[in-house]
Amino acid sequence: MSAFTDIATRTYNHGWRLDPIVRSLLDTDFYKLLMLQLIWERHPEIDVTFSLINRSRSVRLADVVAEEELRAQLDHARTLAFTNRELVWLAGNTFYGETQMFKPGFIAWLRDFRLPPYELSRREGQYELTFSGPWTHTTMWEIPALAIINELRTRAVLRGEGRFSLDVLYARAKAKLWEKVERLRALDGLLISDFGTRRRHSFLWQRWCVEALKEGLGSAMIGSSNVLIAMESDLEAIGTNAHELPMVAAALAPDDEALRQAPYRVLDEWRSAYGGNLLIVLPDAFGTHAFLKDAPDWVADWTGFRPDSAPPIPAGEEIIAWWASKGRDPREKLLVFSDGMDVASIEETHRRFAGRVRTSFGWGTNLTNDFKGCLPGGGSALDPISLVCKVTQADGRPAVKLSDNPEKATGDAGEIARYLRVFGRSGLVSTPVTV
Amino acid sequence: MSAFTDIATRTYNHGWRLDPIVRSLLDTDFYKLLMLQLIWERHPEIDVTFSLINRSRSVRLADVVAEEELRAQLDHARTLAFTNRELVWLAGNTFYGETQMFKPGFIAWLRDFRLPPYELSRREGQYELTFSGPWTHTTMWEIPALAIINELRTRAVLRGEGRFSLDVLYARAKAKLWEKVERLRALDGLLISDFGTRRRHSFLWQRWCVEALKEGLGSAMIGSSNVLIAMESDLEAIGTNAHELPMVAAALAPDDEALRQAPYRVLDEWRSAYGGNLLIVLPDAFGTHAFLKDAPDWVADWTGFRPDSAPPIPAGEEIIAWWASKGRDPREKLLVFSDGMDVASIEETHRRFAGRVRTSFGWGTNLTNDFKGCLPGGGSALDPISLVCKVTQADGRPAVKLSDNPEKATGDAGEIARYLRVFGRSGLVSTPVTV
């Protein structure tokens, strides 16, 4: 067969300066685009700094991933523009049942969008990677930056493995994922979507996982948070909003009272921009307990909640009890579970809430980056790390996230202490962060 | 990427009348060629019938494999001729350290070789497939006929499986094989070769397995019995002789004494044609015990034995004791184990004989067709079956194989009784035949 090698393709591939990890600006999470439209419309003047934070300190990323390769990938991402086809799809596709989710003016603005500059240095075996500038631009770095670093780490670990070692590695990972699919298939009424872009093993692997879920779970697989994969695989693009909205609002609050109100101000803005199934509350930026205690009544009218840092069952129970206290029927509400879920916790959570509340699951790292036990030589070099890219400043003021798990808190220590004073510590439970 | 599909290749593939299973006359076992040269030189006048025998009666092959497809594959195999490149390689390559293993006259004769006609009918859910005519031609059907039927069964079982089911099936099988490779890697001084052509899952899978062993076992992987794969993967072609030689000699023996001597006459012919490492005795056609009891002294000068139907450890011990009784040092001798071996029996046998005799392993069905537990839907539809293609007549006289395991005996019942009288029952042990 060697005579029939596709010479043009081979030659074209020879010409690549590098093998790019991010090849499209749509290779990001859908909620970034929803938030971006809001930021573009309401807050075009805010400057925000995003910073890379590796919570798995024992993995010395700067020793594993070559700086030259990292710069090459980041630089390549900065050359990307939305293509005409991508913009036509964003403008014309239906998202969450809505047409024209993205306004013509926003689509036009996206046409000239490019990722802004980055700052990269090394310190104690870690990379210090920051993105500073208009929030309308720095926000778009979060997902590609994380995907690039995670995939560069994968490549570094696998460099030098033999062709059959690699074949076996992926064979094991595929077999492993399929065991999960077979277990999930047994759950009546399950709804699940891929949330695994940011911490994926690689782009190609994420795509394989999504296609496998599509075939294996049928209609239980409702979509992907990855816009490019959703477009190419004809799946729903899934996602609503993230912690950066309340974090920026909180950072800019002039006093403690404004700080306490910041999460609700953000939701108020959101509901004026989006409706229906996009009205999902992310309650844990500064502690779910505090959020619920002071929440205005209209928050109970929203479609659902996405608990993202408390153990799923207590978190769900707390929100259900809150809905009931507000006179709402939880069976008409939705809980989206997305924090470090895997098959066992999906099974347990699904069974616990069946018939009591609608549920769906955003399956992330344990879907797209579970290679434990798959390396032919053994070892944990492919285990996912807890890498995030968070808002650290807004207009020069420090930004903080508390979350329901103090292990996940980010920000300046003095500011964290102030936030804890304002929001309280009630309901915060420390749990080891693995993914 | 769809714009870059290789249109020429796609178009070429559209034009296939079928997807041929056997695409080269070298896609056969090496010993068939060694035996063929002997038959061509010494016995061009003998007519021999080979017949398909499915010892796994519960698998109704004629219900699983469509007759039309079977005929199409057999017909396609009959269109094949040795290519010039293949003949140049056979003539010029070194086999077992010898140049010009195949004589120029034989190579010239091969140039016009084609597989002869077949007869196919159905009976009680099984195929009756026979090849009658000159031994020089019918002998060459054994391996392709078996490979074709086994792969057609694979295709029938897998038809209708989804693309990801198939991907997972092979992922599981790859992971399974690699576990075996990792266990075998721990055995010091192991020598192993692929003997899995006849009962392989498919050609492509056999090739994957061989390449995986090559990478995973390094120099412990000494070759393949498959001539085409040996040529393409630059491995040693492995094999010596098979039961058809003593079976034909026995069938043609004019009386009981000539029958008793038939196995030794065959070895005498073999040693006049081949030397060195090709002097491997296959002792079990009519029982190893009987063979050793009456064997002439010169048989102890041969390089080794290939016990093929007795449990490996007792068989090895019996042969070692026999060498010692003949005053030979077993540490200079070779035992080749090839009967239904898998990792556990390879480990056990290797350890048992380490330092006492040289050993090597011919790994067959459990290498190239172990899909137990791999079907995404479960079930045993891919489990290998005990299918053979044996000599049933020579010049019109019935042919018989006893073997050390009466479950493997083939032939007419009255003739089996006569052979048992001539050779005795001593040492025969009934063991279930699984592969």
From TrEMBL, chains A, B:
The gene is pncB. The modification Phosphohistidine is found at residue 243. PANTHER family: NICOTINATE PHOSPHORIBOSYLTRANSFERASE (PTHR11098). The keyword RNA-binding does not apply. Belongs to the NAPRTase family. This is Nicotinate phosphoribosyltransferase. GO terms for molecular function: glycosyltransferase activity; nicotinate phosphoribosyltransferase activity. Its EC number is 6.3.4.21. Keywords: Glycosyltransferase, Ligase, Phosphoprotein, Pyridine nucleotide biosynthesis, Transferase. Catalyzes the synthesis of beta-nicotinate D-ribonucleotide from nicotinate and 5-phospho-D-ribose 1-phosphate at the expense of ATP. Residues 192-417 form the Nicotinate/nicotinamide phosphoribosyltransferase domain. Transiently phosphorylated on a His residue during the reaction cycle. Phosphorylation strongly increases the affinity for substrates and increases the rate of nicotinate D-ribonucleotide production. Dephosphorylation regenerates the low-affinity form of the enzyme, leading to product release. It catalyses: 5-phospho-alpha-D-ribose 1-diphosphate + nicotinate + ATP + H2O = nicotinate beta-D-ribonucleotide + ADP + phosphate + diphosphate. Residues 26-150 form the Nicotinate phosphoribosyltransferase N-terminal domain. InterPro entries: N/Namide_PRibTrfase, NAPRTase_N, Nic_PRibTrfase, Nic_PRibTrfase-Fam, Nicotinate_pribotase-like_C. HAMAP family: NAPRTase (MF_00570).
